[in-house]
Amino acid sequence: MLDIFDILGPVMVGPSSSHTAGAVRIGNMARTLLGGEPRTASIGLYGSFAETGRGHGTDRALVAGLLGMKPDDLRIPDSFALAAERGLEFTFSVARLRDAHPNTAVLELADGEGHTLRMQAASIGGGRIRVDRLNGVDVAFTGAFNTLIIHSIDISGKLADVTRELSKGKINIANMSLCRSRRGGAVLMVIETDQRVPPVVRHLIGEMPGVVGLTYYEKEGD
């Protein structure tokens, strides 16, 4: 069954839900996953984003998202000037990718405290997005759910510990994926939930032995 927003599209500043609203959400997702105010951004555009993005405002939309704006923010057309005021330096280039969605952006970000992020994401229509790669790891999440991204060491029972804590908080898991570099190496867990994950639960998970980092994305409207 189609959602009404699949038919009418999102509330947004135009002209295009894929090139503008989706691009804002990609930028905003990258900002959230970085965990701080970005200071530098290298943005690669692929496919239709590269070919027609400037005319559709994709470049300004991505920068607007990096500044924390949402798709209906009337300041999106002025994002370049606002970025200069806030000290965000950015560059655009053409991304060389294989088998990627035609509306794809690759963002490499750094904040002022040494944190970095590399994210590949696509605008898949109707303002919706999909994150395809995160710091070199293949992932697949959309931001349609509240999302925990947990970096940990590969320790036996760690996934069970995390899901147990979520269950105690009465938080239902909608989707979950796990990727590890090697046995005993680094693990990336992506857990999408129906309910918001309260700060106390996030703190308890983040303090678990073996967890080296936790980022939380709260879906729009929650």
Description of the molecule:
The protein has 222 residues and is α+β, with helices and mostly antiparallel strands. The protein folds into two domains: 4-141, 2-Layer Sandwich (60s Ribosomal Protein L30, Chain: A); 146-217, 2-Layer Sandwich (Alpha-Beta Plaits), CATH 3.30.70.260. The chain has helices at residues 4-8, 17-34, 48-56, 58-66, 79-86, 158-168, 199-206, and strands at residues 38-47, 89-94, 103-111, 116-125, 128-134, 137-141, 146-153, 173-180, 186-193, 211-217. A six-stranded mixed beta sheet has the order 2-1-3-4-5-6. A four-stranded antiparallel beta sheet has the order 8-9-7-10, with helices on both faces. Strand 8 and strand 9 (186-193) form a beta hairpin. Helix 2 (17-34) runs parallel beside helix 4 and helix 4 (58-66) packs parallel to helix 5. The two termini are 22 Å apart. The model is unreliable at 4-15 (pLDDT under 50).
